[in-house]
Amino acid sequence: MPIKIPKELPAFTVLSKENIFVMNIERAKTQDIRPLKIAILNLMPMKIQAENQLLRYLSNTPIQVEITLLQTKTYTSQNTPIEHLEKFYNYFDEVRDKKFDGLIITGAPVETMDYEDVDYWDELKEIMEWSKNNVFSTLHICWGAQAALYYHYNIVKKILKNKIFGVFEHRINKEKEDLTRGLDDIFYAPHSRHTTISKEDIERVKELDILSESEEAGVFIIITKDKRQIFITGHLEYDRDTLKNEYLRDLNKGLKIDIPKNYFPKDNIKNEPLVKWRGSANIVFGNWLNYCIYQNTPFMIENIK
């Protein structure tokens, strides 16, 4: 099942070596089908790493997936080569007149800031408003989920005394929902955040359903009843070493940070972390593409509204 990306994008080589089916644009042009058009607003500082993580799971699709990478104009990443951004990324102004089957808004390391103090907040608000009529289904991740719940429903985040950091058990609240179809009764997902949102605040909004939550990590997957807005508070897309690298980064900065929970075998950082969430990530991203988008998005993409 192919994902359609430029051959020069680093993810093409990375995923090909993992025996994941990626298709270059030249080959895709010979196939007489309409690809799903998915935009990714990448707010993560390590953009290439985030690309690889997301594209790995978007590759598990029934048809071609055509990716458009977006960056903010009001803030330029300091951790990604400018040559990479100029070659592979678009600004919102370049796509505002287009329609997309799906949009992913990633997390960002700004969670302890007030939303209004984030450099690109006004631009992000414009994109989130635009998504309501120009994207069939939008998937928000971690801070992106909190920001969207605040913008669309005025649900505020709350600062935690201790960071939610590690790999946690989750359970399904509604077994027959398309997005969580196929997940085990208990499944795992990574979290890395200093803030949270209240279950009670979400339950006050009639348009929202909580599909999954964790006793330790709180609410996990929230969805609108029409499946066009999805909010995931953790990081199913994370690689094996992502939490390890975040932990070592903070240690090297002299920050107070606890070892990630349920991550290193025997809590020994010399032991390689065990991936316990890959199957769940494949299911959730695959269900989003298939049930929330492919089965329902208009064939004539200009009819999205």
From TrEMBL:
Its EC number is 2.3.1.31. Gene3D superfamilies: 3.40.50.880. It is an enzyme of class 2 (transferase). InterPro entries: Class_I_gatase-like, HST_MetA, MetA_family. It comes from the Bacteria. Coiled coil: none annotated. It holds the Pfam family HTS. The record marks 111 as: Important for acyl-CoA specificity. It catalyses: L-homoserine + acetyl-CoA = O-acetyl-L-homoserine + CoA. It is found in: Cytoplasm. Its main location: cytoplasm. Pathway: Amino-acid biosynthesis; L-methionine biosynthesis via de novo pathway; O-acetyl-L-homoserine from L-homoserine: step 1/1. The record marks 192 as: Important for substrate specificity. GO terms for molecular function: homoserine O-succinyltransferase activity. The active site is at 142 (acyl-thioester intermediate), 235 (proton acceptor), 237. Belongs to the MetA family. PANTHER family: HOMOSERINE O-SUCCINYLTRANSFERASE. HAMAP family: MetA_acyltransf. NCBIfam families: metA. This is Homoserine O-acetyltransferase.
